[in-house]
Amino acid sequence: MTDLRTASAGTSLLGCVHCGFCLPACPTYRILADENDSPRGRLYLMRAAAEGRVGTDGAFSFHIGRCLGCRACETVCPAGVPFGSLLEQARALVRPGPIHRLAGSALLRVLTGRPSRPAFAVLRLLRGIGLARLAAKLLPGRIGLAASLVAATRPVAAVSAGRAASFRRAREMPAPPADGSFALLEGCVMRGLFGHVHAATRRVLGRRGMGEVEAPGQVCCGALHAHAGRLKEAAELARRNIEAFERSGAQWIAVDSAGCGAAVLDYRHWLSDSPAWEERARSLADRVRDVTELACGPEAPLHSAVSRAGLEGSVGYDAPCHLVHAQSVRDQPVELLAGIEGLSVEVLPSARHCCGGAGVYGLLRPSLANEVLDPKLEEIRRGRYDWLATGNPGCIMHIGAGLSRAGIATSVVHPVELADWAERKSGCDWT
Q: Which of 107, 285, 330, 367 has the fewest CB within 10 Å, making it most exposed?
């Protein structure tokens, strides 16, 4: 990956025209009203650091560290400044304080390293027997917050009934065509705490005539490492995933985590110092699709033949930042939900604004993260939705924890879970 000095010499950092369009799009600027906590201000700090005019501690570290990385500024930037990539390069220069450094390293090890499987098994147990929810109510500070995030991953019973069933093609479905295969990016948090979403994804795509192929050797997507400025580790994970998905031979790489999907699309930036790897990363990116794109688009051979029974209830949709801004997937999740008969679907007014979760940001900076979330919680309260649908694990956890804290009885689900439930009610179930 190129560094900030290279970006400064080229066009990336020089591309900012200081128009200010990014200011109202930036969640931290809207709250803090500090130019240094806007994309424009952070770009100025990056350029100053790249040119040696400021150090990478002090103000640089502080304000770069407070960025959520939501990339909403990219959507409104008329100059096309690749802020997300520049932010990752900037964070590689940041030297966080000891508390943030230790906490960040520990979280990365638990979530993505060797301890992740036993750690997630323990978390699922605590979630299943209700201890996570109890701890969230009784324990103070970050420990209680962490417990509330785990509790928010619990499958909604009415949506996820039968989730333990193994993935098998329904008897009435024809054999999947050769050009309709997919490999599922399993990830780390998704695999550990959202197996019920993976199961729903497999069922929904299977009903559309798409056959799953395995991708052995795949690992964590690297998103959390890149967000933390650990670019060498992120690049190594990217190379391993490229090799795994190339071996799979799948036509499509299905992703049901917005953060993971955006990360895979960014592999070309992470590996830009190697032309061969960059080209392989671009080839892989051409095959990546969010599950809602595959479920609604022409990639699914039998998508028009799938019926979805009506659900009695209402759902609010909130767009994950890394789906709407980083991947430009805007309409398909709403289309998937709107296709369910009888389900009332509303897009939140703040749907394209960050919820404040931003990976581990909500744990490291809970006060600011909650300030970002609070207006969204009020919209959900007023909407009185049965479900709040969003397509990213961090968003599900952060919004779910916030709803619990605010006493709002709305369940957070992935859009594909509601589609799966409706299709099972229509008789499109596994045998």
A: 367
